[in-house]
Design a protein that fits this description.
This protein has 296 residues and is an alpha/beta fold. It has one domain: Alpha-Beta Complex (2-enoyl-CoA Hydratase, Chain A, domain 1). α2 packs parallel to α3. The chain is flat and about 95 Å long. The protein starts with a helix and ends with a strand.
């Protein structure tokens, strides 16, 4: 039986309508994605970099700093710090990257403290041009910590003996399988004292303070943003909006757009963030780790 010509025309018309709607939808999606980018073409801007949660690795943040440092349209960078700190080395790497952006790339850098910007977070902040904190932000915690577990008594109870073969006197220093001797403690204390001295010197240099004045505050205590301002650890009180405005003023910009590198979606991060918030407690570390971190 031959197909009705009118039916064939209707089918063809609906197919055209369908593809027109598909193409229109695609153009709408692409347009929404492209229009904001097109609106920024040629405009001087401020970059926002977020440092959130424990600082266990520096690569992503250092890469962001280098990318924005090389962008001639980025005139200033705002560091949003919401972190209890973390490893000594990654904190120092981010600190050094901030200094390079400021001194070598001639970018203005303003640090904005969120809920907490302590220890390694504060270490990073002192590399910036200006530091703003909320009155109730937690900061400070200038110190170093190394936490070790000792399982010797437990192993004795269950009848397990640990055998160590070593080629150096201190090769197994900090081992969880034997009690720590006085010489071991002195050795580790000297390491922590040196890392502590590095922290104090960075704060003194970044805040233009005498080393002795910083030493008086560098006993691991924490401060509110208001208290930190009173002892010159931060410059002023303000939120993220205030920090962006300050960065714009310091760079001579009028209502500049703020750009931020989109974070790749991570289901794991979503689960951790849902359970613990954006600054979860520091995960358990294996071995010996020097930490610029606020512990609780």
């Amino acid at each position: 039986m031959a197909e009705d010509p009118s039916s064939r025309k209707r089918s063809s018309r609906w197919r055209r309508i369908f593809w027109i709607l598909v193409i229109a939808g695609a153009l709408t999606v692409f347009g929404k994605a492209l229009l904001p980018e097109l609106a920024l073409v040629g405009k001087e801007r401020i970059a926002l970099i977020r440092i959130e949660g424990p600082i266990l690795d520096s690569r992503a943040t250092v890469d962001e700093l280098e990318t924005y440092g090389d962008d001639p349209l980025v005139k200033a960078i705002v560091l949003r710090l919401d972190t209890p700190g973390g490893g000594v080395a990654p904190s120092q790497e981010i600190y050094n990257a901030v200094k390079r952006v400021r001194l070598d790339k001639h970018k203005t850098v303003v640090a904005s403290m969120g809920t907490v910007a302590a220890s390694g977070g504060y270490y990073i902040a002192v590399a910036s041009d200006r530091i703003l904190a909320n009155p109730g932000s937690l900061t400070g915690s200038i110190g170093v910590v190394m936490q070790l577990a000792n399982l010797e008594n437990l192993m004795n109870k269950i009848g397990v003996k640990n055998i160590v073969i070593k080629s150096g006197r201190y090769k197994d220093v900090g081992s969880p399988f034997r009690m720590m001797g006085e010489e071991d403690q002195q050795l580790l204390q000297s390491v922590l004292d040196d890392a502590h001295r590095q922290f104090i010197e960075a704060v003194a240099a970044g805040r233009s303070l005498d080393t002795a004045d910083v030493e008086a505050l560098a006993d691991g205590r924490i401060f509110t943003g208001q208290q930190a301002k009173d002892v010159l650890l931060v410059d002023d009180l303000g939120d993220l909006t205030d920090a962006v405005k300050l960065a714009a003023d310091m760079s001579g910009l009028q209502s500049p757009p703020v750009v931020e590198t989109p974070r790749p979606y991570s289901f794991r991060d979503w689960v951790v963030g849902s359970l613990f918030g954006k600054a979860p407690a520091l995960p358990i570390q294996t071995g010996m780790n020097l930490m610029y971190v606020m512990t609780w």
